[in-house]
Write the structure tokens for this entry.
Amino acid sequence: MEKVLNEVLHLSGEIANQERGEEDLGVTEFGEKLITSEDIEFLWVARNASGSAKKATTSIKSYSDNKISDDISKKGSIRLGNEVFVYSKSSSWKTNDLEVLIKWLVIEANSKEELIEHLVAVLGKTFVPKLMGLDAVSKKRGKDPQVIRDTFLYKEWKEKPDLKTIHTESKIAPEWVKNLSHGERKQ
């Protein structure tokens, strides 16, 4: 794994030095093997090594960001290269009591139309309900959850597929995952 990690880091350095938007993976011998390989195990090893490299560089970036933030909070904003670093603490809004907020929206509305208008204003036009919650409400109302999903929601497919992983040691891993051997595929 160490040799592959070194190859990944070397390829990463070469890619980082390329012109913006270029991203030619075949600039090293390892990169050439990567783009021509059909060996799923080689690709898996390369993926794991790049994940380790990414974790390490993310740790370095996070550490640097914290030190820069600390410096700027004490000494003020600074320009370095083409970047100006400004310190500000981020925040997000949370509801004190969701039920009270919902009751206020519902009770204070002067009409059903106004209630809908206010709910859309608070939830936003891109609001998507929690699917498990929608299913639970559907069942409580005696409706088929899939029919309700199909009635009110649609699935928007991404251009690029997401590769997901399921860890075999996870307590919530399905049995079929736990029963597969290394290199075995699910039929």
